[in-house]
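The methods section describes the discrete structure representation at length, but only in general terms. Each protein is reduced to its one-letter sequence and a matching series of backbone shape codes. I believe one specimen quoted in the main text would settle the matter. An entry of this sort, consisting of the sequence and the corresponding backbone structure tokens, reads as follows.
***
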Amino acid sequence: MESVLSQAGRWRELGRKVALATVVATRRSAPRPVGSKLVVSETGQLAGSVSGGCVENDVVLAAQEVLEGGQPRLLTYGITDEMAFGVGLPCGGEIDVFVEELTDAERPDVTLTVVAGEGVGERLDDPELLEAARRRGRSHVLELGDRTVLADVSAPPPRLFVYGAVDTAEALCRAAKLLGWRTVVADARASFATHERIPSADELLLLWPEEALAQVQPDLGTAVVVLTHDDKFDLPLIRGALAGDAFYVGWIGSRRNQERRRGLLREEGVTDDELDRIAGPSGLDIGADTPAETALSMLAEIIAVRANRAGGRLKDAETRIHSPL
């Protein structure tokens, strides 16, 4: 989303008016998640997508009407729409798209916009709601009385923080970069933490666990994975990660070693609720063997946790396909 809004910003710097269309709700198998954006300039330039091509033409027409002085509006598309043959979603889902003129000189990291009910298009400035949306980290819709409000979150890309510069760390970084994530690898061993061994890391730190945690400061957008197989690294790193806001904390090791290390952490005062946050052994059960397969297994679990999904097979899932919200 950041590149879409950046493009819109460049058009506005050239003096052009810009309309913003945002997906505010999806039902069943929708092609784009809540928060997906399409921007339309008054000269007809486009950036982004709200449906993968199914309804864009109609959204562009609505955007042009808004730019010509029309009111912000909420549009609904799907197979139940009377326009199904023209702009329906062939995937069988439904989406709601809110179209407005983009007037923010500089888009905040979170905006609260009324998309239905009294005061459509109005921006709300509620500190508690803004902070709650910021902590959630993803765009979503709120029902406030008779008004529907889009909490639009422009979060930076997630970070993957790996402690232990081993082969799997490089495989994790390579895969995570394909997702657009930022990657940080740390190790206290100078012979391990080298750019020759871990060329795909955005940042490589030669630091002990406490020092690495202090520098990285894992937040709500950070996944932490520990690969060192050594108590002097594993325990302080996990203990420190559990004291922060990382959305995922995982480590490798046999089940017997998992229980042994959990016992040591309990002795150090870590609570059972905190220990429940640990994904250990890290990853989904896909039969991974090589470092690349192991990295895929770990990243799959990390993505599932971030989306609050169990990570099972899609053919057995009862929730919407490929939806993070």
